[in-house]
Design brief:
alpha+beta; Proliferating Cell Nuclear Antigen; 8-stranded antiparallel beta sheet
Length: about 375
């Protein structure tokens, strides 16, 4: 069996299916499934995220062949063409369970399996999807909220960005137990009353080549010109996300005094500098202390490490209303501050009492930071 595939079409398909992360313990994410049938090559990977793409080629092949090839060997061989800028086609030949691929002078031979490697029972898309039209502001909101969600898949109810319709707007929630965030955006298009968007797909909402964002009965999917990447919607997240608890925390925080207010862009610039200072530090050392005395027009910021100390200060809006000292985990908050740095004329208000969580508000965005025990 021999056939050739245009370089640009193959590389585009590989780029899309490569959005499926490699996960130890999921052989279907480390062995790529190749199905040759007539004049089409199907490439698939599967773990918590699934991807299935199709590449057409000229001339039919005899029969159908399914192979499972090591992703860590095959994909780098394909992707070298991106650097060499070669436009020569990839020529595939299959003999028994061995795959040979050639592009110009480059040749690769891969020993493959012909069955198994965890693809039995792989999640499949069923039924007709609903199309979701997400504006850039909505995608941006989902990205910032996702930075506060937990990446731990053993806590499925928090491994998502939770959307909840509220009148003419949508509220976006995320939490990793230490942080809890809520952001509101006006939405003109149709949206479900609630939806737990799988966290792994949120960074790819604006990926190159996304044609449609699709909602199936059990899956959330991104459709590209060459195929689809999708993930199942967690029932635990859909039914058990603690948005009411987050609403209560925010409501309670708003009753506390505003201890200081600061220009968000200026404060975020300092946070970004501290992030650069701490690049080589351990994550548990990314603790930034902030303090001020009653009547001060500036607050002092410091990061103390075993081998040194970094200090800075920033002007507040008005004056500090009462003395305080707090510690924030900069490693978790940096994406939040990076987002604020892009907002114009944004003022960050910080509410708290001596024994309450910290509530950071900027109008349409509220972030609760729990005190570290």
């Amino acid at each position: 069996m021999e056939f050739s595939v245009a370089s640009d079409k193959l590389l585009e398909s590989v780029r899309v299916v490569d959005l499926v992360p490699t996960i130890i313990g999921f052989p279907s994410s480390t062995f790529v499934r190749l199905v040759v049938n007539k004049n089409e090559l199907d490439i698939a990977l599967s773990a918590e995220v699934c991807g299935d793409v199709h590449v057409k080629f000229d001339g039919p092949t005899n029969g159908k062949k399914t192979l499972y090839c090591a992703r860590a060997l095959l994909f780098p061989f394909f992707n070298v063409a991106l650097n060499s800028k070669s436009v020569k086609p990839f020529v595939f030949s299959v003999k028994d369970n061995q795959l040979r691929v050639q592009q110009g002078r480059r040749k690769g031979t891969f020993d493959c399996a012909d069955k198994g490697v965890g693809y039995n029972g792989v999640d499949t898309l069923e039924g007709k999807p609903t199309l979701l039209e997400l504006s850039e502001s909505v995608r941006s909101a989902m990205r910032i909220v996702s930075s506060c969600a937990t990446s731990d898949t053993t806590v499925p109810e928090l491994n998502c960005v939770f959307l909840r319709r509220n009148g003419s707007g949508v509220e976006f929630y995320g939490s990793n137990q230490l942080l809890a965030i809520r952001m509101t955006e006006k939405v003109k298009t149709e949206m479900p009353d609630s939806l737990a968007v799988p966290l792994a797909l949120v960074p790819n909402l604006a990926a190159e080549g996304v044609k449609e964002i699709q909602l199936y009965k059990k899956q959330f999917a991104l459709r590209f010109g060459c195929g689809t990447v999708w993930q199942s919607i967690s029932i635990k997240a859909q039914k058990g996300f603690p948005y009411e608890k987050i609403d209560t925390l925010i409501k309670s925080g708003l009753r506390e005094d505003v201890r200081f207010s600061v220009n968000a862009k200026r404060f975020s610039s300092i946070a970004d500098r501290f992030g650069m200072y701490l690049t080589s530090a351990k994550r548990e050392e990314w603790l930034v202390s902030i303090e001020g005395e009653k009547g001060d027009k500036e607050i002092r910021i410091a990061a103390k490490l075993p081998q040194g100390v970094f200090r800075d200060r920033v002007a507040v809006e008005g004056v500090v209303k009462s003395a305080f000292k707090l510690d924030w985990p900069l490693d978790l908050l940096l994406p939040f501050f990076t987002y604020l740095a892009e907002q114009k004329d944004c003022v960050l208000h910080v509410h708290f009492n001596d024994d309450t969580p910290y509530l950071l508000t900027t109008g349409k965005l509220s972030l609760v930071v729990d005190r570290r025990k």
